[in-house]
Design goal:
The chain has 381 residues and is of the alpha/beta class. The chain is 47% helix and 15% strand. Strand 5, helix 5 and strand 6 form a beta-alpha-beta unit. Helix 6 runs parallel beside helix 10 and helix 14 packs antiparallel against helix 15. The longest helix is centred in the C-terminal third of the chain and has 19 residues. The radius of gyration is 20 Å and the shape is globular. The N and C termini lie far apart (51 Å). It binds NADPH dihydro-nicotinamide-adenine-dinucleotide phosphate, 1-deoxy-D-xylulose-5-phosphate and manganese (II) ion (MN). Manganese (II) ion (MN) binds next to helix 7. Its cofactor is Mg(2+); Mn(2+). It catalyses: 2-C-methyl-D-erythritol 4-phosphate + NADP(+) = 1-deoxy-D-xylulose 5-phosphate + NADPH + H(+). Belongs to the DXR family.
Length: 381
């Protein structure tokens, strides 16, 4: 039995993680979880899974739930996230929270020697050097959940990192992949949220549309696999069937394929190095699909991808700024305060205004993260 703590239980990845736990009750048990504001959904999860500890974003919600479920432990805020991430009975943390709020709980879970299944890519973008260094020093398994990184991780099983020629991360192109830049001027929030292949949370769906998601994934891959940026390519592949590939020195390419279903990489991270059946996942039928398409990535069309690669190469606190600016700008777009193309303008301004600090410690990272959010908010207002 694996005892799971889950950050972000009410979200898209959180819900699919619960599906897996539900399908395999003899393999997994949910012992601790966090939610944000969605208390209605939290009530249902508590009733179904009976976790021992639940953390919510707000104190008032924690108090209300404590009255309703007197035998359960409740916590709240940032401390609550850490309590869930380090819950003593849990052996494995699934970090499915959104944003750099996931960084500190991840570091604490690593110190508490939990196996980490990481979906929360913003944590790696914000402070990948601190996270991977802590994982190495504490000798904990740090397993990718993001579909592309799971694909690369699977392609690398039994391989030597020294033999890698390059990583090839595939990109669907997101909701606006068939639009020109000129056509992006008047796009709406609901159009942007209409991803062609994946049903995901709002923030990552917008990131897919701006191609920032792929930029974050390039930085994520750099840290997870310890590969220089020059050896990471992005390839447009509109079907999202090949989840990513690794090319080796001998010109051999290993790809991982499957129908677009996040439960597959989530479950792989939970069962690694084993595999167990996933009855509810659709089988891949290539004969039915017929053909797959590939296209070179245009960094002028997708400026956010260029910003991310450049920020990653500069390193230090530059990716922290990229991520924080993006989080604020995407939320402002979702709230109807800015247009779609203003997302990238704000990120560009934040990056241009920043002088990167080399080898930043956690205090510096947290300071830069907060400062960037304030700068971008003031640009918006
Ligand atoms: N969705 C997907 O298919 C994929 C997602 N990812 C990554 O996984 C992560 C999660 O994405 P996704 O599931 O789509 O996101 P969602 O928006 O669907 O879910 C986010 C979760 O985080 C909680 N949350 C949000 N803000 C806070 C906060 N300040 N404090 C505590 N909890 C908070 C939400 O709680 P509540 O709703 O209760 O407020 C919710 O449980 C992201 O980093 C994303 O990039 C990676 C690959 C695929
Ligand atoms: C499912 C997943 O891993 C997402 O990160 C996905 O990659 C988004 O699709 P895009 O390729 O459009 O960014
Ligand atoms: Mn992905």
């Amino acid at each position: 039995m694996k005892y799971i703590s889950l950050l972000g239980a009410t979200g898209s990845i959180g819900t699919q993680t619960l599906d897996i736990i539900n399908e395999h009750p003899t393999e997994f048990q949910l012992v601790a979880m966090s939610v944000g504001q969605n208390i209605e959904r939290a009530r249902k999860i508590i009733t179904q899974f009976q976790p021992e500890l639940v953390s919510v974003a707000n104190k008032e919600d924690a108090e209300e739930l404590r009255q309703e479920f007197p035998k359960m432990n409740f916590s709240f805020g940032h401390e609550g996230l850490v309590e869930v991430a380090t819950y003593p009975k849990a052996t494995t943390l699934v970090n499915a929270v959104i944003g750099s709020v996931g960084l500190f709980p991840t570091l604490e879970a690593i110190k508490a020697k939990k196996t980490i299944c990481i979906a929360n890519k913003e944590t790696l973008v914000t402070a990948g050097h601190l996270v991977m260094d802590a994982a190495r020093k504490n000798n904990v398994a740090f397993l990718p959940v993001d579909s592309e990184h799971s694909a690369i991780f699977q392609a690398l099983q039994g391989e030597k990192v020294k033999n890698i020629e390059k990583l090839i991360i595939t990109a669907s192109g997101g909701s606006f992949r068939d639009k020109t830049r000129a056509e992006l001027n008047n796009v709406t929030v609901s159009e942007a949220l209409n991803h062609p292949n994946w049903s995901m949370g709002a923030k990552i769906t917008i990131d897919s549309a701006t191609m920032m998601n792929k930029g974050l994934e390039v930085i994520e891959a750099h840290w997870l696999f310890n590969i220089p940026y020059e050896k990471i390519d992005v390839l447009l592949h509109k079907e999202s069937i090949i989840h990513s590939m690794v090319e080796f020195h001998d010109s051999s390419v290993i790809a991982q394929l499957g129908t677009p279903d996040m439960r597959v990489p989530i479950q792989y991270a939970l069962t690694y190095p084993d595999r167990i059946p996933l009855k509810t996942a659709a089988k891949l039928n290539l004969a039915e699909i017929g053909q797959l398409h590939f296209q070179k990535m245009d960094l002028e069309r997708y400026r956010c991808l260029r910003f991310a690669i450049e920020a990653g190469k500069v390193g230090g606190t530059m990716p922290t700024v990229l991520n924080a600016a993006n989080e604020i700008a995407v939320q402002a777009f979702l709230d109807g305060k800015i247009t779609f193309l203003e997302i990238e303008d704000l990120i560009e301004k934040a990056l241009e205004a920043h002088s990167s600090v080399k080898n930043p410690d956690l205090d510096i990272i947290q300071g830069v993260d907060l400062e960037t959010r304030a700068v971008v908010r003031s640009l918006i207002s």
